[in-house]
Amino acid sequence: MEKLQPVRGTRDLIGEDQRRHTQVIDTARRIAALYGFEEWTTPIFEDTRVFSRGLGDTSDVVSKEMYSFTDRGGDSLTLRPENTAGVCRALVSNGLAQANLPRKVFYAGPMFRYERPQKGRYRQFHQIGCEILGAAEPLADAEVIACGWHIQQALGMTEGVVLEVNTLGDAESRDAYREALVAHFSAHATALSADSQVRLAKNPLRILDSKDEGDRKIVATAPDIHPYLTASAAAFYAAVTGYLTAFAVPWRENPRIVRGLDYYSHTAFEFVTDRLGAQGTVMAGGRYDGLVEEMGGPATPSVGWAAGVERLSMLLPEAPPAPRPVAVIPVTEAQEPQALAALRLLRSAGIAAEIGYKGNMKRRMERANRIGARAAVILGEDEVAAGNAQLKDLTTGEQMLVPLAELAALLR
Fold first, then answer.
1. Scanning 76, 101, 288, 374, which has its CA 20 to 30 A from the CA of 91?
2. What's domain 16-170+230-315's superfamily in CATH?
3. pTM of the model as a whole
4. Which residue windows are coiled coil (predicted)?
């Protein structure tokens, strides 16, 4: 019979991979809580319109990468390719869009995109993210970025990671910039890739994101947005970068960071590194002041970021160690009831403890070493009769007789 394998672009998380994955999410959850973010969990699949509205029909994600299907009721559903749109939909559908704003939301979970698998990128992947919903002030932009930087610091992975920041300006700034881009790219229209020729008509800002080598050469001479910023947009950008400095977050300007959809405005940013090869972005986000409206809610200025757990896991300086339990070992079957009582006592005291299901004492000791146990609690006839146990340190080999009543305190 053929041995089944995981679907291309997916993988199993086992052992060290799972421990790295868990450390990233647990650390991010802990740091986000320090900044006042509460965790939301939204469905893994949504009405397809949540993403077609949220990401735009011309985006690569919507046009090429979404896992969409028609369910038995005839509804078009999509496995979420990202979670910002789902969080905005949840704000609206739960009646939270007009009270107690801003809302500070943290999330973690799997996402799905049909794209070419490569290092650190999968078709089922995982993201963490932070969103501040209902805050128009530049301090919100800086604080959400500072939270992301703090998470990376707590993970010990900031070496070689750089924060790059840009502004998309306000609507008036973008309109003027769009005209300048259309003029520039129209002069090179025949040299643009087919995708970028379509973007030139629909969304010229997205050409700046093109990965096509020919497009990149044309993009290199394209104008920056900064000369087209209104006074208020320039002041907003100056305030954000000033707050970043106050938060002690190092940054540099990159005028090529863009977000092509109309509801994005002002701040756009990426944490990038050269430690992951071609996939250099580990955390990215920006301000999206119109997305909640796309979900049927009121105007709700918002800002946030998302980060790939797989890529963050790869940047951890070392894997968390495997847990080291205590092995409880009855010398014969006659001591098994006392062994089970000791097992229950240790676990109730918050100490990880295991027992082998079969085998003589020698085999159970071999298993204790195999699972990396830190200690063995050995229960023989004489020890049980006296209310004691032999406690053996499996790192040093030292062994001593201890009262069962003191076992948990000693092992702590």
1. 76
2. Bira Bifunctional Protein; Domain 2 (3.30.930.10)
3. 0.90
4. none
